[in-house]
Automatic annotation (TrEMBL), chain A:
InterPro entries xrefs: AA_ABC_transptr_permease_3TM, ABC_transp_permease_HisMQ, MetI-like, MetI-like_sf
Domain ABC transmembrane type-1 as annotated: residue spans: 14-213
A matching Pfam family: BPD_transp_1
Family, similarity comment: Belongs to the binding-protein-dependent transport system permease family. HisMQ subfamily.
Transmembrane segments: 15-34, 91-109, 150-172, 192-213
Coiled-coil regions listed: none
Species per Swiss-Prot/TrEMBL record: Vogesella margarita
Protein name as catalogued: ABC transporter permease
NCBIfam families: HEQRo_perm_3TM
CDD domains: TM_PBP2 (cd06261)
Main localization, broad class: membrane
Keyword Iron-sulfur: no
From TrEMBL, chain B:
CDD domains in the record: TM_PBP2
Record family assignment: Belongs to the binding-protein-dependent transport system permease family. HisMQ subfamily.
NCBIfam families linked: HEQRo_perm_3TM
Keyword Acetylation: no
Subcellular location: Cell inner membrane; Cell membrane
Protein name (database record): ABC transporter permease
Keyword Transport carried by entry: yes
Entry keyword set: Cell inner membrane, Cell membrane, Membrane, Transmembrane, Transmembrane helix, Transport
InterPro entries named among the record's database cross-references: AA_ABC_transptr_permease_3TM, ArtM/GltK/GlnP/TcyL/YhdX-like, MetI-like, MetI-like_sf
SUPFAM superfamilies, per database record: MetI-like
Transmembrane segments: 36-56, 68-89, 209-227
């Protein structure tokens, strides 16, 4: 039997990996939008905060962030609860993984969205405001639909890097595809086959994403003339 | 809350010092991280230049294999590549019986191999992109001077593409520097590996991980600064006019 019947287990792990990746993407998009708005806001402290966030996060490896946040936050919670005299809860590792990866990629998304917002002509936003729209409505109706086109290439790249970073979450105890592979490797004694299958799974995810995002890019560029050499 | 004494006490461990022994008495920590980075970048670049030339070739039997190589290595996580080399190769008896096994069973060699193959894939794509971007005038001029194809590649296309690749390559180098942090997952004592060791000794998370985070941040800034200088030197002709 192929991999002594461990393939279903690896596939289950893949689903968890995908869940982590997609949830982390949502977190990172929210953080990225907030970061981009802070960075472009007239308020100096907010702009500075966003600058520190995007610079410091991007200057430190993902793995170090995961270890620092996962073990660090758990210890803070332990100490806090100990002071109150309560029993500390264990952080859910799925939640921890999603938040950590979301936090890291929020920094990359900040740069992506900032560039994209700046690419939309300012007169568009001014016109919206002049029509009496609220700033939120201007963002949702005017800025956002137009910035998508500029954000997509870098967004796609961030997503592909994020998916590959998800391979690290087994370090903080998630039962993901890498964790399942580790078990399968020890029992089947076929480490090459196991990791080749895992590699194939990741390649399939990145290939499908790449195709889908290319289509989306085309869609959002409707009506934009391409320059031909 | 943060034990500064612990940081001071354990700091030498990140620079290769052990209990009682002075710093740099072992290659653990910073030195190992820099070795892994430096060697894989050098080997990776040496592989990437010929592969980039193959990738832009009009002969598809030459271009396709390189395309497949960069596609696979850029589409899978570096951690999986490292594990395939470190754990995976032992599955084959012919690998274990060969002369290379003496090296391939070393985590150090496996890490350098995995990092080299990975960075070579990204660098190949960066270089190939810049080779394709070469201005047609430069190529026409080279042909008009009667240069052979290889002389033109050597004197015109490759030097110019390498220069123009600098900004994208600097990103790749910073990413690679950060990626070396996974070396600890195959038993190596690089910066992150040392931090995890200190963490499991003391069960204090902030001190070791904040220390390495700081070291990586400084290294990121240093690399960015170095590449800025390199761009000022080798890309000055593309900079906007100052006066």
């Amino acid at each position: 039997m192929f991999l002594q019947g461990y393939l279903p287990s690896i596939m289950e792990g893949t689903i968890l990996t995908l869940q982590v990746a997609v949830s982390a993407l949502l977190v990172s998009v929210v953080l990225g939008l907030i970061g981009a708005m802070f960075k472009m806001s007239p308020s100096k402290p907010l702009a500075w905060l966003a600058e520190v966030y995007s610079t410091v996060v991007r200057g430190v490896p993902d793995l170090v962030w995961m270890l620092l946040l996962f073990f660090g936050v758990q210890m803070l919670i332990n100490e806090l609860f100990a002071q109150m005299g309560w029993e500390a809860p264990e952080i859910n590792s799925f939640f921890a993984g999603v938040m950590t990866i979301g936090f890291i990629f929020g920094a990359y998304m900040t740069e992506t969205f900032r560039g994209a917002i700046m690419a939309v002509p300012k007169g568009q936003m001014e016109a919206g405001l002049a029509y009496g729209m609220s700033p939120l409505r201007v963002f949702l109706r005017i800025t956002f639909p137009q910035m998508v086109r500029f954000a997509l290439p870098s967004f796609s790249n961030n997503w592909l890097v994020l998916v590959k970073s998800t391979a690290l979450v087994s370090v903080i105890g998630l039962n993901d595809v890498m964790y399942r592979a580790d078990t399968a490797k020890s029992i089947t004694q076929e480490p090459f086959t196991v990791y080749a299958v895992v590699g194939g799974i990741f390649l399939a995810i990145t290939s499908v994403s790449d195709l889908a995002l290319k289509r989306l890019e085309k869609r959002y560029s409707t009506g934009v003339r391409e320059t031909e050499l | 809350m943060i034990d500064v004494n612990l940081i001071i006490e354990r700091f030498p461990a990140f620079l290769g010092g052990t209990d009682g022994a002075p710093i740099l008495s072992t290659s653990d920590g910073l030195q190992l991280t820099l070795e892994l980075l430096g060697l894989s970048l050098v080997f990776g670049l040496l592989l990437a230049v010929p592969m980039a030339l193959m990738l832009v070739s009009r002969n598809k039997w030459v271009a396709r294999p390189v395309w497949l190589y960069t596609y696979v290595f850029r589409g899978t996580p570096l951690l999986v590549q490292l594990f395939i080399i470190y754990y995976g190769l032992s599955q084959f008896d012919w690998v274990r019986d060969s002369w290379a096994w003496e090296y391939l069973r070393e985590a150090y060699v496996c890490a350098i191999l995995a990092f080299t193959l990975n960075t070579a894939a990204y660098t190949t794509e960066i270089l190939a992109g810049q080779i394709r971007n070469t201005h047609y005038g430069e190529i026409e001029a080279a042909k008009a001077m009667g240069m052979s194809k290889w002389l033109m590649m050597r004197r015109i296309v490759i030097p110019s593409a390498l220069r123009r690749a600098l900004p994208a390559y600097s990103n790749e180098v910073v990413m690679m520097m950060q990626s070396t942090s996974i070396a600890g997952l195959v038993t190596l004592a690089d910066l992150t590996g040392v931090a995890r060791r200190v963490f499991s000794d003391t069960y204090m998370p902030f001190e070791p991980f904040l220390t390495v985070a700081g070291i990586y941040l400084v290294m990121t800034f240093a690399l960015v600064w170095l590449f800025k200088r390199a761009e000022q030197r080798w890309l000055a002709y593309l900079a906007p006019r100052k006066h």
